[in-house]
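Practice problem: predict the structure.
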Amino acid sequence: MNVGRGVLVAAALLALGGCSETHGTSGMDCAWELHYGGKLYLQAPGMASAKVVPHQGSPIGQGWFDGCQDGGGPEPRQTVAVYQVAGIDPTLAVMTEEDVIGVTDPDNLPAQLALPNE
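Answer:
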């Protein structure tokens, strides 16, 4: 990812930071916790959606979300295609088929994902 595009991405993601992402079919909020490749990915801070950087190419694998157990009855595990974020090692960050970025360490984002003033 070139620097100009990275700044554009960060600015667009900052504008989207107030969104919340859910998964499952109940419509209720659940923690966004993606399991992929033996690692747990959490939704990157300020990155509720990465629609400005859609996934490209073929998935690198399949991950899953545990079913929500939030009072609406148990839900089954939900599988999802996982994609590499351009220029970032997949052990640090990946993107789901819904274009949501997950990171293994939300406190230490890869430089390409860091929001301005961080």
